[in-house]
Structure formats: structure tokens, C-alpha cells
Write a structure and sequence with these properties.
CATH architecture of the largest domain: 4-Layer Sandwich
Number of helices: 11
Largest sheet: 6 strands, antiparallel
CATH superfamily of the largest domain: PPM-type phosphatase domain
CATH topology of the largest domain: Phosphatase 2c, domain 1
Structural class: alpha+beta
Shape: elongated
Strand content: 25-35%
Helix content: 25-40%
CATH class of the largest domain: Alpha Beta
Radius of gyration: 24 Å
Number of domains: 2
Distance between the termini: 36 Å
Order of helices and strands: EEEHHEEEEEEEHHHEEHEHEEEHHHEHE
């Protein structure tokens, strides 16, 4: 199979119907082991609440697992059709669904049953996806095969997005074309898929007046080139390895972030360049950044990265902190943009030396805390779809 430098940046978020404890929509993402392929399923259970949540979760998990195991989409659809019959009262299926199967990031196979048609932004503008109609187990299925281009943006949604504001005084005309026009304003900015999803779901929530009349889910996929990023944090356990580690770090392709006071001094010595501390305080709780010629970003260590972890946890949740890190100029905000928005592959170089400054009475920072911080941050980044490699030295 031909190798490709493309990958999928994915962001999914849901709104729960007002008054309900559980969202009736569910999305599932499964990577095929050993292959450069990905299956995304979004399901919308009949009605709302716990019952709808169970139905959509069952649908998404069955379809994504079967597709990832290599079964044909026809087999997947037939299996779920048999498992989820038509409701005798309403005459509609217990769950609708959308399947997007990215094969080697060259081809997307799309199957939709009774769900809003996927929006594809290509070159920043709406590109109508050609569909053919099929009937499987008595259900009309829309299907499409479309070859991918770099920077394609796929937007899948549940019907709660298209119906936003319906019956609400605030809005009478939020339709598919309006959603397209709204989203066409963002691709040129370079936002991540998660941020694009957040912008759309916030608009949907606003149209509902903060009280959604239906569950609403958005799943955005941005087909983009892989972008490596490197971050070194802490000096090595053996001082004699300073030069060796910096040589490995700066030899890596991509941007370079240096975090920590001692680490910055080691990097400056290696490059033969002075450290210049930025006098402007962007956030009183975050130490100021510095500059070293040849380094893309220089920050303080554990306080700054602890804030980055806080932002990372929020990003994989509801992303409400986006405006803080998305537009801030403190060290934590800048690292967050580089790791969350720009990078796809991140190499962490983590020093195991114990900082003497952290051994003073009343201070509990030690290597174990640093290691746990990096491990938690790595897990959050993996959930964002990043490829992570951590090297201890």
C-alpha cells in the first residue's frame, strides 16, 4: 500500500437535550491496527435520554467494530438493521447512523442512514458529495466513495444541529445552507478539527437559547499533512549527557519547545546563544517566556506545563477554555496552540534529574510529579489523535 503523509485531525462534541441526563447521540472512532485507516461512526438514538443513549452507543460500537475488522459496509449495515428494527409506534428506526471509513487517507467511503448529509469543505468552499441510493434490509442507504485532498474538512452531524432554533423565537431559518455559510468562514484560519467543532456547537447552543430541544452532535475531520513537534522538559539524570540529549533533540524534524529554567540554560549552551527573558507578563499565574535563537519557544517548566495539562483536559471535554489558550500569549497558551492545533506527531524528551530548587521545605515537586504530568498530558494528546513518543534520559 502506498504510503501517505496525510492523517485525520478529528474533533467531536455533543449537546444534551435540556432536562436529560444522557445524550442520545454517540460517536465511535476506531483505528485499524497496522493500517493507515480509520473508521468513524456517529449514531442518533430514537428520542432522547437514557434509552436513546443506549441505542446509539450500541449502534456506533457494533458498526465501528465490524468495519474496523474488515467486514464490508453492506455486512455492517445488514447486521445493525437486524439488531435495530423499525419502531412499531413511530415507524422509524431505533437509531440512525453515519459511517465514514478513511482508507489509507486516500479514499473515504461514506454510508448514511436517515442522517443529515455530511458537509465537505474543499479548498474552503462547500463541495457536494455525490451519493448513490441503496436499499439494505428495507432501509434507504446513501453511499459515496470520494478521493481525498489535503485540507478536506468533513462535517458530520446529528439532526439536532440542522434543527437548531426550530420553535425558538431566536431563529426560524437555520438550515443546511446556513451551516455551510457559517463554517466556510473558518478553514482559512487554520483551526483544528476540535476547534471547528466547538465553534459550530456553540452556535447551535446559542440558537437553542442555551436549552437544546434535541441532542446535537458534531464530528469534524480535517485531512491534513503530518506535522512533527518536539518538547524537552528537564535536564538529564547524568550531567554528562547534556550535549548528547540536545543533539538528539535539535536533530528532530519540526519545531522545538524548551521548558524549564535549567533546561533552557543547557539548550543555550548547546546552541552558543544567550537567553533573553521577556519582560512582559501575559498571565500573572504563568512565568514569562524567554527567547533563544534557534528555539521556537522557551518557557518555564512545571507551572507552565501544569496549565497546559489543564487546557488539554478541557479540550477533550467541552473545550470551553479555547478562548483562553487560543488567543493568549503566555507560555502555556503558546504551547497549547502548538500541541493541540498544529502538531500531529509529538516527541517528548523528559529529563530525570531532580531539580535542587524543588527540594526546599514546603515544595513537593520531584521527578515523579514531572513524570505523572507528562504521562497525563500524553494521554490527553492521544485522545486528540496525536502520535506521542516519550523518551526519558
Amino acid at each position: 500500500m502506498k504510503k501517505t503523509n496525510l492523517c485525520a485531525d478529528i474533533g467531536c462534541t455533543s449537546l444534551t437535550k435540556a432536562g436529560e441526563q444522557a445524550c442520545g447521540d454517540h460517536f465511535q472512532i476506531v483505528e485499524q491496527q497496522g493500517e493507515n485507516s480509520l473508521v468513524i461512526v456517529m449514531a442518533d438514538g430514537l428520542g432522547s435520554g437514557i434509552k436513546a443513549s443506549i441505542l446509539s452507543t450500541l449502534t456506533a460500537r457494533i458498526l465501528s467494530t465490524m468495519a474496523a475488522e474488515g467486514l464490508s459496509l453492506e455486512e455492517c449495515v445488514n447486521a445493525i438493521s437486524a439488531a435495530l428494527p423499525i419502531c412499531s409506534v413511530r415507524g422509524v428506526a431505533y437509531s440512525t447512523f453515519t459511517i465514514i471509513y478513511f482508507i489509507n487517507y486516500e479514499l473515504a467511503q461514506i454510508v448514511q442512514y436517515d442522517s443529515p448529509r455530511i458537509i465537505l469543505l474543499r479548498d474552503g468552499k462547500n463541495h457536494e458529495i455525490p451519493y448513490t441510493e441503496h436499499y439494505l434490509s428495507g432501509k434507504k442507504i446513501l453511499r459515496s466513495n470520494i478521493y481525498l485532498k489535503k485540507n478536506d474538512i468533513f462535517i458530520a452531524m446529528s439532526d439536532g444541529v440542522e434543527h437548531a432554533g426550530r420553535g425558538n423565537i431566536y431563529n426560524f431559518s437555520w438550515k443546511r445552507d446556513d451551516i455551510i455559510k457559517f463554517m466556510e468562514t473558518f478553514p482559512s484560519v487554520g483551526f483544528s478539527a476540535k476547534t471547528l467543532t466547538t465553534l459550530l456547537i456553540k452556535e447551535v447552543d446559542k440558537l437553542y437559547g442555551g436549552e437544546p430541544a434535541d441532542d446535537a452532535t458534531v464530528c469534524t475531520v480535517h485531512i491534513r499533512e503530518r506535522v512533527p513537534m518536539n518538547l524537552v522538559f528537564g535536564p538529564p539524570a547524568d550531567h554528562n549527557d547534556d550535549q548528547k540529549i540536545m543533539s538528539l533533540f535539535f536533530a528532530k524534524e519540526g519545531k522545538h519547545i524548551v521548558s524549564g529554567g535549567i533546561t533552557s540554560k543547557i539548550a543555550a549552551r548547546y546552541l552558543g546563544k544567550p537567553i533573553k527573558i521577556n519582560a512582559k507578563i501575559e498571565d500573572p499565574e504563568i512565568p514569562p517566556t524567554s527567547t533563544i535563537e534557534g528555539v521556537d519557544l522557551v518557557t518555564e517548566g512545571i507551572i507552565t506545563l501544569s496549565r497546559v495539562l489543564q487546557y488539554a483536559k478541557n479540550t477533550i471535554d467541552d473545550n470551553k477554555d479555547f478562548e483562553k489558550w487560543g488567543y493568549g500569549f503566555d507560555g502555556a497558551s503558546q504551547i497549547s496552540r502548538l500541541l493541540f492545533e498544529e502538531a500531529t506527531d509529538i516527541n517528548f524528551f523528559i529529563g530525570q534529574a531532580v531539580n535542587p530548587a524543588h527540594q526546599k521545605p514546603g515544595l513537593t515537586y520531584n521527578f515523579n510529579i514531572k513524570k505523572r504530568l507528562v504521562e497525563e498530558l500524553s494521554e490527553c494528546l492521544k485522545k486528540m489523535g496525536k502520535r506521542i513518543k516519550v523518551i526519558y534520559f
